[in-house]
Structures are given as C-alpha cells and as structure tokens.
Amino acid sequence: MVNQDLFVKICGVTNLEDARFALECGADAIGLNFYERSPRFVTIDRAVEIVSQLPEHKSKIGVFVNASRKRVRDVMSAVHLSAVQLIGKEGPDDLVNFDSSVIKVFRVYPGFEIETLRNYIVDAFLLDTYQDETYGGSGKTFDWNLAIAAKEYGKIILSGGLNPDNIEDAVRFVQPYGVDVSSGVEVRPGRKDPRKVRDFIARARSVPLYYNEDLDDDEE
Prior knowledge:
Layout: E1 7-10, H1 16-24, E2 29-33, H2 44-51, E3 59-65, H3 69-79, E4 83-87, E5 101-108, E6 124-129, H4 144-150, E7 156-158, H5 167-174, E8 178-181, E9 186-188, E10 191-192, H6 194-205, H7 210-219
Parallel strand pairs: 1-2, 1-8, 2-3, 3-4, 4-5, 5-6, 6-7, 7-8
Antiparallel strand pairs: 9-10
C-alpha cells in the first residue's frame, strides 16, 4: 500500500541533483534554508538555479530564522517559493495577512505548552526538537505524544530526528498531516544520501493514515 495523502518534505536541499531525486522518489516538497548560519544555507542565486529547473506542481518551501517580513518577501519574490517555513519569535499578530502560505515552526522541549499553538492561524505547524543554538537538523526526536496533542490546533508536520529506521513508527503513532526530514537522510550536512531519501519516502508512505479512513466512513 502506498499512502499518497501524507505530505513528505525533504529539507535542507542545497543542490539540484538532490532536489530532483527527492521529487522523483515521491516527495511533495523540498526545503531551501536561507538562514546564513546553517550548514545547509543556500544563497538566493543558488535557490533560483535549483527552483527554476523543478516541476511547477511540486512545492518549494523557504526556511527562515528570525527573518524580517521584508527579507522573507524579497526572497519569495526572487526565488518563486511556494510557501515559507518560519522559525523564531514570530507572534500570532506577525503572521496575520502574510504574503504566502505559512508553516510555523515550534521547537519542542520537556514542558513545552502545546496550547500555545491555539493562538496562531497558519497553514500548518512543524514540530521539531529544541536544541540550543540549532534551528533544525538536530537529529533528535521529542515526545511524540505532544505531536498527537497538537493536532487539535491544526495540521501537524512532524520533524526532529526522523530517519528511514523510525519513520514508520512515527507515522503510525502520530498520524500526522506530514513529515519533514533533513539530517536523517544525509551523507553530510547539505548533501543527501540517495538510498536514505528513497527508503525514507517509501517507508513513510507505506503506513496507512487512519484519520482518512474515518473521514471516508463519515462521508458514507
């Protein structure tokens, strides 16, 4: 069984070869990191080079850390991004009437108050593992029970420490809207391992999403 409903994003892409391979393997989106301190940082010129040669129907998502609205707008316009993924201090009011689809990132730690999400009106939430001085790519998981609780407030994209070995358990347990991976499918920061990318996507899609079955039952 192949589950096409799960949203799968391969993040931290830095080159066209990796981007194309991920999409050919069935990923719905790639993530391009515009945070200059990240080992997966891409310049606007490099991002334009990558995005211009990818299928239009696939999503290209820009990742920003504590970026100004102008910075995000300028990069979106230059690169023709499909959506933005925002990590940082943005409050609910900062995301009102935004110029694009928004994925708001929350870095989860013990004691994190999931109810914080209720204040935000965004297209999806991405939950990642909190780690000092690191914004994404930590390679560490968090308590997935918190991700289950977070589904009350919107679409949840699960991230943080996912890899081909644990993705089936993660999807089966959390039943998220989507999953996001970066370091878990890499040879080194910014360079993807083709085998891991292929296995991650295939295994993620092998798990049924029971909430879709419940929806089908209701419609009957």
